[in-house]
Specification:
The complex is a heterotrimer. Chain A is mostly helical. Helices cover about 70% and strands about 0% of the residues of chain A. Chain B has a domain of about 170 residues: MetI-like fold. By secondary structure, chain C is α+β, with helices and mostly antiparallel strands. Chain C has two domains: about 230 residues, P-loop containing nucleotide triphosphate hydrolases (Rossmann fold, 3-Layer(aba) Sandwich), CATH 3.40.50.300; about 100 residues, OB fold (Dihydrolipoamide Acetyltransferase, E2P). In chain C, strand 9 and strand 10 form a beta hairpin. The longest helix of chain C has 18 residues. Chain C is elongated and about 75 Å long. The chains are: A mainly alpha, B mainly alpha, C alpha+beta. At the A-B interface, helix 1, helix 3, helix 4, helix 5 and helix 7 of A face helix 1, helix 3, helix 4, helix 5 and helix 7 of B.
């Protein structure tokens, strides 16, 4: 800081504390609500302090779920989410890194065409081509399958561009040295390129895991059988399927469980997360 | 461009194949289908389709519901972007001032990124719940009746807040990075030239931050237009009375719920046009990354 | 060990620009050849053509008896030392040295033995398990050389290997490279833009300009009998004075020459000397001084003892037989 003005510092702290409070409010309330019994919500206003039903609510949701709504246990939905998130993250990284490798390290016919085809995916988010994409997946018999959940989402221009950028910044001499040392293209890829791209891969993995876990529209469309529900798409069904008022304590417990894995990833891998975020969207 | 390349014609195609095949099957083909369907009309039983030219498009622009969705989208998108960015910038400026506690506050502010927009919608639904939610309760104490289930304005406020909340951490991180890359020497020079903190912010920091601001503007607009689908679907379902029925949500409703394929396809094509324009703007003016 | 032959070698880029034209060099087994020239003269391109990193569009390159024009770099039996060393940053020194051997299927025991030998020769034993980033510039340089040595190739190719080092280290490493090459007796091609480095290292120099060979010869040959005005101006420090013959019309035997070259150390002050020089500036070097000025319209330099008297106008004479004459149109040497 240029000059030392304690007043401004105090103001900054005040603004931040208020900001953090606003940002944290929804999660606080969810956390509190998930520790109460259903009938604590019947009258007046939601409780602001913890109840004693945490164990009941969470163990019930993880173990059996809300039986009346025909929903699978949350633990099962979380397992589905995990498969989807890992599949998307790994799949995206795998096909993007090989694409970038091909585009950067080879000259071949239709190279520019390939580049623009990949670029085009940026302009076609799933939201704008929902119906025909659903039809394609249905025709391929991929509804209600893990591949159906994962594969349509793993094409990625962003990740391909990121790796392309990383590869372009690698010194040419490294490739030449490897060629003289007798490494062919795939050997160079495995022995030199992949190890040198490790942190980029890790950062991208963090971002893509969160992206995959938080998918909503796609799983909502293509999972019609309850055993394939993911937790993020499942909550919504849980709140609408219930006959009476949604059972807030259970829904909030599920919400807390649904945000937990990505939240832990962001908090404990903050450095990689920030790196990934800045790199992929810059 | 690399000076050194491997001489192999087949291998690169093999390496590209997974990405290209997936793109072709799940991106290009559906997009082409959308374009094709947008010129067709299916009868009520899905037995016959006929070519109707641009009828689906003209019908859309004559439909007050669709035009309403356009203005709803505009209000919603701009509000989400403005709320997100103002809040994020304020936080970033404050954090940038406090060198010692920077890390703690940053951690406390970035985690909403991890919360899925759909879950964010549910959380805010709970807070705004007209009968038991905390905010309507507080507002009732000061005589305001807040009920998004019946009131279009309240519904809009509700989805804007829920959508903006999900996006704050992202903008915050970029603003903070932008602020920290303003050279200290510039601020010091301005201070010596007699500019106080407020003046310095508006004459030095903000102009230097404009590339970041512009980037975030575009990215947040795209987010608000498309990725907020989950927020709407988890909360208002476009209601009440179409007041929060943004364009992406309407495509889905007309296509899946209403089964009106021709109209939904035409809407898809229009949305594609919007995304293409936004993407071109982003890459033309924001990044030079695809300069080949 | 092998000879290397370049036969009418040339390179034209796809766009039509010519990088290298009609180069002929016969490199004997065990010889140390230095390619020298200003930046952009094509010396690195030529080296990379020998390495197989650039295509050859004209002529033939042979290593030993084998034409290698279309042979992959790894199959040419050469090793290369790069300007920025190009060490694999994620591998330890030991892994860096072993990588090329491993790819060629050398047995584990053999790799270990050769790495140990190379480490011994280059005194990098203590760093074998470190990563390159934990090494100093000079140590990295040694590792880069080690990577070449372990392979026991037919030839070493050096691409400006010392230009990333500071001046003092450069001199030490220069000597080490020379000594190492003597000891191993491996045919070497070395690229540099530094004429001093070229002079001190080379068995024979190849002076290049604009993609063409200007002269091939031992350092002394090139120094004593530069084949063109380009070589004359490039080799030797301070550079040879090149004066238009018309500025000094009365010098005997120079009638048919366009340019006359005289090395600064071959000029001496003499009251009745036939050459007049206008002095512009003086550089004191301690033991001697460099006097800069003009002879006719051309810039010229004279080395003088530091106690010699100075005036604004000097009359100079030259050591007999020290004049170099160059053809008025081609700039080639006339003998």
């Amino acid at each position: 800081m240029v000059e030392n003005r304690p007043i401004l510092n105090i103001l900054a702290h005040l603004v931040l504390i208020l900001g953090v409070a606003i940002v944290a409010l929804p999660v606080w309330i969810a956390l509190v609500a998930s520790t109460h019994a259903s009938n604590d919500f019947l009258g007046g206003v939601v409780p602001m302090w913890f109840g004693d039903q945490a164990w009941n609510n969470y163990s019930r949701m993880l173990g059996t779920g809300i039986s009346t709504s025909g929903m699978p246990p949350v633990s099962w939905m979380m397992f589905n989410s995990l498969i989807m998130a890992l599949g998307i993250a790994i799949g995206k990284i795998a096909i993007s890194i090989t694409s970038a490798f091909a585009i950067v390290y080879f000259r071949f016919p239709f190279r520019m065409l390939a580049f623009w085809v990949i670029f085009a995916t940026l302009m076609l988010p799933v939201e704008v081509r929902i119906v025909p994409t659903f039809q394609v997946v249905a025709n391929l018999g991929m509804l209600n399958t893990y591949p159906g959940l994962i594969i349509p989402l793993i094409a990625s221009a962003t990740a391909t561009f990121l790796f392309r950028q990383v590869f372009l910044s690698m010194p040419d001499e490294l490739t030449e040295a490897a060629r003289i040392d007798g490494a062919g293209p795939m050997k160079f890829f495995w022995d030199i390129l992949l190890p040198l791209t490790r942190t980029n891969i890790a950062a991208l993995f963090v971002i893509m895991f969160i992206y995959g876990w938080n998918q909503y529209l796609w799983p909502l469309l293509i999972t019609t059988g309850s055993d394939m529900y993911t937790v993020v798409a499942g909550i919504k069904r849980m709140s609408t399927v219930a006959d009476t008022d949604p059972q807030w304590n259970y829904i909030m417990a599920t919400a807390v469980l649904a945000m937990l894995p990505p939240l832990l990833v962001v908090i404990f891998m903050q450095r990689l997360f920030v790196k990934g975020l800045v790199e992929t969207e810059k | 461009m690399k000076r050194v390349v491997f001489n192999n014609k087949f291998l690169p195609l093999l390496l590209l194949a997974p990405q290209l095949i997936i793109t072709a099957i799940f991106f290009l083909w559906p997009a082409a289908q959308a374009i094709r369907q947008s010129f067709l009309r299916e009868d009520a039983f899905g037995l016959r389709t006929e070519f109707v030219g641009i009828d689906n498009y003209t019908a859309l622009f004559r439909s007050s519901e669709y035009l309403n969705s356009f203005s709803v989208t505009l209000i919603f998108t701009v509000s989400v972007t403005v709320v997100t960015m103002v809040f994020a910038l304020l936080m970033a400026i404050a954090v940038d001032r406090l060198i010692k506690s920077e890390k703690v506050y940053t951690t406390l502010l970035i985690w909403p990124y991890a919360v899925a927009p759909a879950v964010a919608g549910i959380l805010w639904w709970f807070i705004f719940n007209p009968s038991i939610g905390i905010l309507p309760y507080v507002l009732r104490q000061v005589g305001i009746n807040f009920n998004w289930i019946f009131d279009p304005t309240d519904a809009m406020i509700f989805v804007v807040i829920a959508s903006a909340w999900s996006r704050i951490s992202y903008s915050f991180l970029f603003f903070l990075a932008g602020l920290q890359s303003v050279p200290a020497s510039l601020r010091e020079a301005a201070a010596i030239d007699g500019a106080g903190p407020v003046k310095r912010f508006f004459t030095i920091t903000l102009p230097l931050l404009s590339p970041t601001t512009f980037f975030l503007l575009v990215v947040n607009l795209v987010y608000a237009m498309f990725e907020t689908f989950a927020v709407i679907d988890a909360t208002t379902l476009g209601g009440p009375a179409q007041s929060t029925n943004i364009l992406v949500y309407k495509v889905y409703q007309d296509g899946f719920v209403g089964q009106n394929l021709g109209s939904s396809a035409a809407q898809s094509v229009i949305l594609m046009g919007i995304v293409i324009v936004l993407t071109v703007i982003q890459f033309r003016f924001v990044e030079k990354r695809v300069a080949y | 060990m092998a000879s290397i032959t370049l036969d009418n070698v040339g390179k034209v880029y796809p766009g039509g620009t010519r990088a290298i034209g009609d180069v002929n060099i016969d490199i004997a087994d065990g010889e140390f050849i230095v390619l020298v020239g200003p930046s952009g003269c094509g010396k690195s391109t030529l080296l990379r053509m020998v390495a197989g990193l650039e295509t050859i569009t004209e002529g033939q390159i042979r290593i030993g008896d084998r034409v290698v024009n279309d042979v992959e770099p790894m199959d040419r039996d050469i090793a290369m030392v790069f300007q920025n060393y190009a060490l694999y940053p994620h591998m330890s020194v030991r892994q860096n040295l072993a990588y090329g051997l491993k790819n060629r299927g050398t047995s584990k025991a053999d790799i270990e033995k050769r790495v140990a030998e190379a480490a011994e020769i280059l005194q990098i034993g203590p760093f074998l398990d470190r990563k390159p980033r934990a090494l100093s510039g000079g140590q990295r340089q040694r590792v880069a050389m080690g990577r070449a040595i372990v392979r026991e190739p037919a030839a070493f190719l050096f691409d400006e290997p010392l230009s990333n080092l500071d001046a003092k280290l450069r001199v030490t490493m220069r000597l080490e490279i020379k000594e190492l090459q003597r000891r191993l007796g491996t045919t070497s091609i070395y690229v540099t833009h530094d004429q001093l480095e070229a002079m001190t290292l080379a068995d024979r120099l190849v002076v290049l300009s604009a993609g063409k060979v200007e002269q091939i010869g031992t350092p002394l040959e090139v120094y004593r009998k530069p084949a063109s005005t380009f070589v004359a101006g490039f080799i030797g420090s301070p550079a040879m004075n090149l004066i238009k013959a018309s500025s000094v019309p009365h010098l005997p035997g120079t009638a048919h020459a366009g340019m006359i070259g005289i090395r600064p150390e071959d000029l001496t002050v003499s009251a009745d000397g036939p050459i007049q020089m206008k002095v512009a500036a003086v550089e004191e070097l301690g033991a001697q001084r460099l006097v800069h000025g003009h002879i006719g319209g051309d810039a010229a330099t004279v080395t003088m003892a530091s106690d010699a008297t100075l005036s604004d106008d000097l009359n100079l004479t030259y050591r007999p037989g020290s004049l170099h004459l160059f053809h008025p149109e081609t700039g080639k040497r006339i003998d």
